[in-house]
Amino acid sequence: MQVLVLTLVSFFIFSIYQTTVSNLVERGIQTSTSFFDDVAPFKIGFSPFLNFELGKTTYIEVFYIGILNTLLIAILGIFASTVVGFIVGIVRLSPNWLASKCALIYIEIFRNVPLLLQIMFWNFAVFLATLPPPKKSIEFGYIFLNSRGLHTPIPFIEDKSSFNAWVFILLLGVIFCILLSRWAKKNFEQTGIKRPIFIYNLLILSSIGFLSYYLLGGPLEFDVPVLGKFNFKGGGQLPLPLFSLWFALTIYTSAFIAENVRAGISSVSKGQIEAAKSIGLNRSQMINMIIIPQAMRVIIPPTISQFLNLTKNSSLAVAVGYEEIVAVWAGISLNQTGQALIIIAMTIIVYECMSLFTSFILNMYNRKVQITER
Amino acid sequence: MKKITSLVTSVAIAGIAFATTASASTLEEVQARGDLRCGVSGGVPGFSAPNDAGKMVGIDAAVCDAVAAAVLGDASKVTYIPLTAKERFTALSSGEIDVLSRNTTHTLTREASLGLNFTYYNYIDGQGFMVMKDAGISSALELDGASICVQAGTTTELNMADYFRNNNMDYTPVGYETSTQTREGFEGGACDVLTSDKSQLAALSTEMADPSSILILPETISKEPLGPVVAQGDDQWMDIVAFTLYALINAEELGVTSSNIDELVANPGNPSVGRLVGAEGDTGEKLGLSADWSYQVIKQVGNYGEIYEATVEPIGIPRAGSVNDLWTRGGILYAPPIR
Question: Is A1 within 8 Å of B1 when comparing Cβ atoms?
Fold first, then answer.
């Protein structure tokens, strides 16, 4: 029986394939991958990881740029929405009435407005409308903010050998700090004396870093953005479309994550909290040591779906002009070459891989935090 | 289990049966359906944009109306399907629309590899640049380093890349999906320059808060012959769409308008006019249409000049002496005779 079903299904899939191919041929649509090595006849504005050179970069490189830009927004978004989501979720359960209601309003507003609308709202109605043109940029030292985005100085290596020496010294510092924390932990277990070891480490590392940096004569130089005829040139750039998209995705997804966090925390039984109080833990100790570890096993599974949603939602970037894979590959490249079948299939595979990879990693983490029952 | 199997089998059989159905000719399909599905932009004033009454109007929409009048005898039997630049060709080759009339540039790649046939041109355009007046720019050659708003996936994007490369200039593209978004981006300051076909620049500027604050630079950097497109593989349908457009142009050349056509049917005088208005000859039969197809087109939609005057003139693009004028008046619109 099962063999029969399998045969029928594979026959069905095969016949779809056959029909597609014959229809394409009949309509005179050429399908081939030969365009991969053709030079892309258009320009990609934002490609921080691969250098785009008009007249040299090929279609397949455009594909890679698209993937990298999608990964960039996905990682930025996942990071920021987790932080914001956790804070909002915890505030939502705060005993302070005002704080809790503010978090509720935040969640209900951003969870219930369609994402595309939010992206366009932040980009066109808020950022573009309020940020000044490049010539009237808002300045913070060497950092400039305007309607094209954020322009910052970026460091580059001036002298390779002294830079390597600096990195080596820093590494030694990190190792020292790790040893110090180990000793502190051991000492705490033996004597019960708690030291603010994190702050010590921070102080030690930053002083080592600064001192050696100056002793080595400053191995880094900074590329500072300079106002050109139209906009700032040089330095690092966070273009406005990326920023708007990041902002909108973070706000939207964090509202969902906040609800997951609330559900997770509520799932921790009251007895645990009472027990924590009875042994004299204060609120932050109780949250960090009793509630969060137990809540994690409820929080993580639905949050994985939110991370996957965020990655897929980043394809709405095309509305604000951020150049991720759907915009540059399934959009521009598809339209310029007409190779819909191949391009759409590749795009689907990319999203599929990203989602599977994300859920694989997080499922591993999930297994780690689940309660081990013996 | 048995139920599942029979379900799968029937789905599979239905799928195969559906996939292998022989397709009827486009003309028969449209006549059987009783309306024409026409792909338009839907957001470019003068070409295709809804008017106050919600009716799609513009020179592209008029081509849809004319084809419907020729094929169905009623110019109002059109379903306009707004498409983005990205969607348009797939919509046409998959049979979702019968005609694509969406300011689409005729190029070799599109003609030869996308399964499309371009008919003729209803508007001949060229790409230009638009800047804010206060930027103090007077030539496209001063645009080195500018951010440029552009509609993604258009020939505009390619011409721009070529132009900047040719002139050793650099730029940052800001690609949006629709031309409305490019305008919003430009107005909001996401870019210094907006580039598009010059007709579209004029159209978009009419929608801006302050149309007098912008300047369209003098350079025209490309050839953009725009016209209706049909899917490959149905020559009769291609002839119908092409000759509907030719009829509009010939009507203007011969002085036939929607208001004097009734008189001319009764008393054509010139045999060319007689053939055009259907008083002589059998052009309808040859195309597979009714004998009065061209009468219906001109009566209901008007001739090319009337359409231009009603749609493109109002967005501020004068026609006299431009490339879009008739060949007899210094333009290049030239239609083969209807005989």
Answer: yes
Domain assignment present for residue B238? The answer is yes
- Residue B89 DSSP SS3: helix
CB count within 10 Å of CB B312 equals: 23
In a domain, B182, yes or no: yes
Are B87 and B134 found together in one domain? no
Q: Which of B335, B256, B334 is nearest to B295 (CA)?
A: B256
Average pLDDT over residues A134-155: 85
Q: How far is B290 from chain A (nearest CA, A)?
A: 28
Which of A 46-75 lie inside 8 A of B, CB atoms?
Answer: 54-55
Give A78→chain B minimum CA distance, Å. Answer: 25
- State the best of A123, A230, A242 to mutate against chain B, taking most chain B CBs within 10 Å: A230
A211 with A347, same domain: the answer is no
Cα–Cα distance, A21 to A14 (Å, whole number):
11
Q: Output the CA–CA distances (angstroms, integers) from residue B110 to A298, B88, B176, B229, B232, in the order listed.
A: 53, 12, 21, 10, 11
Establish if A145 belongs to a structural domain.
no
Residues of chain B numbered 58-77 and touching chain A (CB < 8 Å): none
Burial class for A211, CB neighbours closer than 10 Å (0-12, 13-18, 19+):
exposed
Tokens of B215: 């300047």
Query: What pTM value is reported for the model?
Result: 0.78
Within this chain, do residues A314 and A282 fall inside the same structural domain, yes or no? yes
A348: containing domain? 54-123+238-369
Report ipTM for this prediction. 0.77
Q: Which two tokens stand for residue B260?
A: 């004097």
Q: Does A341 touch chain B (CB under 8 A)?
A: no
Residues of B in contact with A11 (CB under 8 A): 12
| Band of pLDDT at residue A242, cut at 50, 70 and 90 | very high
Residues B54-79 have pLDDT tens digits of: 999 999 999 999 999 999 999 999 99
Give the residue from chain B lying closest to A320, CA to CA.
Answer: B176
Measured between alpha carbons, how far is A207 from A216 in angstroms, rounded to an integer?
14
A210 and A243, same domain (yes or no): no
Confidence of residue A84 (pLDDT cuts 50, 70, 90): very high
Least confident of A94-103, B176-185, B250-259: B176-185
8 A C-beta contact, residue B225 and residue B122: no
Mean of all residue pLDDT scores within chain B: 89
pLDDT tens, B201-255? 988 888 888 888 999 999 999 999 999 999 998 999 999 999 999 999 999 999 9
Q: Is residue A107 within a helix (H) or strand (E), and if so which, with residue range?
A: helix A97-112
Q: Which two tokens stand for residue A52?
A: 């785009």
Do A288 and A362 share a domain, yes or no?
yes
**Contact criterion met (CB < 8 Å) for A9 and B8:** yes
Partners of residue B181 in chain A, C-beta under 8 Å:
319, 321
Q: What are phi and psi of B317, to 5 degrees?
A: -120, 100
Whether residue A310 sits in one domain with residue A194: no
Using CB atoms, which residue from A8, A44, A124 is nearest to B9? A8
CB contact (8 A) between residue A12 and residue B109: no
Instruction: Note whether B232 contacts A: Cβ–Cβ < 8 A.
Output: yes
Q: Is A142 on the interface with B (CB under 8 A)?
A: no
